[in-house]
Structures are given as structure tokens and as C-alpha cells.
What we know:
By secondary structure, the protein is α/β, with parallel strands linked by helices. Helices cover 58% and strands 9% of the residues. It starts with a helix and ends in a 16-residue tail after the last strand.
Amino acid sequence: MYEEGKKLDFSDDRKKRVAKLKKLIMALVITLIAIPTILCIVLVVKLFILQDKVDNILDNRDKVENTTEYIGETTGNVEEGYTDSQTGSESQESQEQSSEEQTTEEQTTEEQTTETPSTEPLPDGKYAYLTFDDGPSANTMSILDILDNYGVKATFFVNGHTGSVMEERYKAIVDRGHAIGIHTFSHDYDNVYGGLDKFEEEIVSLRKYILEVTGKDTTLFRFPGGSSNTIADDIKPYIQWLNDNGYSYWDWNCSSGDATGKKITAEEIVANCMVQADAGYKNLVILMHDLRPKESTVEALPALIEALQARGYEIRAIDERSTLVQHRKLQ
Length: 331
Ligand SMILES: [Zn+2]
């Protein structure tokens, strides 16, 4: 009895120890599986948070860049409105209309100094010019495809973007029959308006670059912020330089509003452009942007082209036959 009891005790004890050991091994296995799994989950969550942060930073950077651009270019428009109000016009629309009429009147003399008067002026009609600033960008090809779909030509006032992908985009703009113009190499206001030497370098270097990449020598120019920008202390020497060196500079009389910091919808862009169209402008130069975050510009394009054509506009690329639109001129 005693021995059996001892044996029983011994076997119980062993069973307990084995069970304990099993539990220990199980716990170890579970721990070994759980730790990497938890780590993986934590890392994935962190990755998403970081991706979010990167997106936000990129978004904010674009907003800052575009707001600067918008402030410059819009201030230009507003300033122009005030200047024209000296002619006595009351409403903003008539101010802009009067601005356009002045532009048309003065255009003949301007053109003689800026463009070779080789071709006849366009017959009487309604003309609209879609102009895209700041490109090329990841949007360029989509814009070109839409323009091709409608068989219309536009004008791209580009900046200096290097690299083979960008070079393909410059080439596509020219090869597909659109006008290309200079919008300065850097678009950096401090440099562009930091004196005539810098201004000249910004233009000549980009002109050379465009010629090398596309084979097209262009003398079309658009001031960053427009000729009525408030960043340059005095725009006149810059205008004088352009006139003396055979460039024609183009502002706009219709802003699509696509460079506003806030997200603008495609419908709003079309509506903005229709303000002047419905006011009866016969020569419409529309400011738009070829910039990556501006998806609504691309989205708005088919409806915009259709709306312009429905109002009888012929959509053209800027050339020597087009009527100049300039906010500031030398008298
Ligand atoms: Zn610009």
C-alpha cells in the first residue's frame, strides 16, 4: 500500500511537471508568434500615419506655392481694374471691357515692335485662347489628350523643369501643334524681379532650353504674376527689355481661378470663365495652370471647351495674328 501510494504520488508529480512544461512551451510558442505579429501591426499603422503626414506636407507645400502665385496674379488683375477705373467706368465688368478695348486699340503699335507683322489679322469673330502656366507637369499629357480630342490648340507658358520625363512633355506640347511660351526658368519672384540681369538670364536660359529640347524658338512671354504684379518695384524696365529684344508678353483678361489655395471644382472653373464670355468679350485670353495638384483644371477642360464653342468662340493657340492682352504697357 505504502509503495503503491508512493508510486502514485510520484506519477502525479511527474504528470503535473509535464503539464507545466507543456504550458510553458505553449506560452513560449504563442509569445514568439505574437510579438512579431504585434510589431507588424504597429509598423503598418505607423506607415499609414507617416504616409498621411507626407501627403499633408506635400499638399501644404502646393497650397503655399499656388497661393503665392494666385496672390501675385490676382493682385495684378485687381490693380489693373483700379487703373482702368480712371477712365470713368463704374462696374468691374465695364472696367475689364474697357481694358480689353484699350488693348485692342493699342495692339497695332505694340505688335509692330514685338512680332513680325507677316500675316493678316484674324477675320472678325470671337476668339478664345486657353493658356496654361507653370508646366509641364504630370497633368500635361492629360491636357494634351483632351485638346486633341476636341481638335483645339492652346498655349503653354512653361517654366524650366529638367529631366527626361519633363523633356518628353515639352516635346509633346510642340509636336502636337500647341504654342509654347516662356514663363521664366525658376518662377522665383525674388530672382525674376531681382534686377534686369537676372530677368534676362531667367528668360534667355529657358528660351535656349526650350529650343534645345523641342527645336522651337519662342519669343512668347508671360510675366510670373502678370505684368501688373506688385512684386516688381517697377515693371517698366522689364517691359522695355522685352520690347527691345523682340518678345511679346501676354497677360489675360479671364481667370479660371484654378490657382486658388482652396479646392475649386470643375464646375466653378467653367463658371468663372463664362463671366467674361457671357459679357461678350470677343478676344478671350484665359489663365489656367498646368500644375500637378490641379486635377480640376483637367476635369473642367472638356466642359469649358464645349461651353466656349457653344458661345461661338474659335479656340486658338496664341500666334502673331492674335490680339494682345496686356495689363501694363509702355506709353
Ligand atoms: Zn505662374
